[in-house]
Amino acid sequence: MIGPDCKDCPVCQEEVAKTPAEGGEVPIKLHCGHMIGRDCLQTWLKSWHIDREKENPTCPLCRAQLPLLYKDIESMPWDKQLELLPSQVQLIAREWVAYARSDEALDREVDAFLLAAREEQIDGCYGVELGHMLAKLETRRLAFVQYQKTLQAVLEGMQAG
Prior knowledge:
By secondary structure, the chain is mostly helical. The protein folds into two domains: 1-69, Zinc/RING finger domain, C3HC4 (zinc finger) (Herpes Virus-1), CATH 3.30.40; 70-161. It has five helices and two strands, in the order E-E-H-H-H-H-H. A hairpin with a 5-residue loop joins strand 1 and strand 2. Helix 3 packs antiparallel against helix 5 (128-160) and helix 4 (104-119) crosses helix 5. The protein is elongated. The mean pLDDT is 76.
């Protein structure tokens, strides 16, 4: 197991890193408590799915079931996908998704603007309305950046502790 005094992935023996930029394996904590380098875990999971398509994969060290994998996660409803995330991440992820879905009026406004701009001369779509819409979109973009930073901080805290 990768602990505070362990500096190598238990599978490949490569030095672990806190971030991908540092070079080395980024440790991933499994439900069983073992920490495995991300690249080694991905290799293990790919080979598992080729050999045993119908079973959930296991930890490469203790063979405990990994309960988080589904054949086609993208076909699952959002709420079920969010349940697969570690509990520390679920709250911020739910807030992020709720915020992303919260402004249907702005979505309709952008759609209508783009459809109208397609039908008119391109010169006709620049003006005050575009400025207001871009300001609203920038506000939302900045909120998403903040959610991303918060989520990154939570993930870094999970990796460290």
